[in-house]
Design goal:
Blueprint lengths: L9 H7 L11 E5 L25 H14 L3 E5 L9 H9 L6 E6 L12 H7 L3 E5 L5 H8 L3 H14 L9 E5 L10 H16 L5 E4 L6 H10 L2 H10 L14 E4 L5 E2 L2 H6 L30 H4 L16
Parallel strand pairs: 1-2, 1-7, 2-3, 3-4, 4-5, 5-6
Antiparallel strand pairs: 7-8
């Protein structure tokens, strides 16, 4: 199960268990609208930041909308960078609202972007269109958030969370979720316990309410990987992931029912494969030339980064896999 470099190989590990990871019916389209971001976070796997210019064009967005309509996709997961910085975001959301199959529109926000005057009207727009917000909040303590995301980010996040609550988010309005990811080379604690701690702390101190907390393990890609390499910690972190391999999670991983599209319209099994430039198993690799039905049964492209998603309680873009139904 080890390659020539001595590292355990995920694909061989799965094969030995007699498991096969293949595409099922596509229920979710994850759209990366670009790498432009107001922050420069230490763990970012796409290495987004203020100096990045890549943004999805309206033409690609229109092809994504056609894919969603043809495939009958139910869930749209909008990410980045900071997706709010894409000038066509409103066009995308309005287009999605016209499609009968779409049941949920999720938007991943770092929150602090919504404190800028240019984007201050977006929370109202999101509420009017019933967009669920998944908010990056790597800790309920100020020092930990600012260490990972930059000085002053925590206070901006608190301000925006209070604004979202006032608009009904996390209460009687659209759903509001927070995301925890570790501040270093360790796995997340139990999601349910962390959610309780978040709700107690943020509720008591700031009156903030939210629906759910998602725990996500850091994938050894992008800036996080670079940092691990500089500190000589990469091998140890990979060993941690391998040692916590949980075969029960193989049936629940998000890549089985998800397609990820990058800002240029290229298509992947997940956002992490997009970073590694591992296109999905298809003759075509552009969202406008792919039929979802043709992907069913296709093998999923695997790599050692996949150990992250199945380690321990499991990790997906919507949190721990522990309680996810197969």
């Amino acid at each position: 199960m080890k390659g020539s470099n001595g590292m355990v190989e995920f694909e061989k590990y799965v094969d030995k268990l007699g498991e096969k990871l293949v595409k099922g019916h596509i229920q979710c389209l994850q759209m990366n609208l670009g790498y432009a971001c107001n922050l420069h976070c230490s763990h970012c796997h796409v290495e987004a930041g203020p100096n990045r210019q890549e943004k999805m064009s309206l033409e690609v967005i229109e092809d994504c909308l056609r894919f969603v309509e043809d495939a009958g996709v139910k869930v749209i997961d909008i990410t980045g960078g900071a997706p709010e910085m894409n000038p066509h975001l409103r066009d995308l959301i309005r287009g999605l609202k016209q499609l009968k199959s779409v049941e949920s529109i999720l938007l991943r926000s770092n929150l602090s972007i919504l404190d800028q005057a240019e984007y201050a009207d977006l929370p109202n727009f999101f509420r009017e269109n019933n967009v669920e917000i998944i908010s990056s909040m790597p800790c309920y303590l100020e020092n930990n958030v600012d260490f990972q995301r930059g000085k002053g980010v925590y206070n901006k996040n608190i301000k925006i969370l209070q604004k979202l609550n006032n608009l009904g988010y996390g209460r009687k309005g659209p759903k509001l979720h927070l995301v925890y990811n570790p501040g270093g080379n360790f796995l997340p604690g139990p999601q349910q316990e962390l959610e309780i701690a978040y709700k107690e702390n943020l509720g008591e101190r700031f009156g903030i309410t939210f629906n759910s907390l998602y725990t996500m393990a850091n994938v050894p890609l992008g800036r996080f990987r670079t940092d691990l390499e500089k500190q000589g910690l990469l091998e140890g972190y990979m060993k941690l992931l391998v040692d916590n391999f949980n075969p029960a999670n193989l049936e629940k991983v998000m890549c089985r029912n998800l397609v990820s599209v990058d800002w240029q319209g290229r298509v992947y099994d997940c956002d992490f494969n997009h970073v590694l430039k591992l296109p999905l198993e298809s003759k075509e690799n552009y969202i406008g030339n792919i039929m979802a039905k043709d992907l069913v049964g296709k093998p999923i492209k695997l790599g050692n980064h996949c150990f992250t998603c199945v380690a321990g309680a499991g990790s997906s873009c919507q949190g721990s896999l522990d309680n996810k139904a197969v």
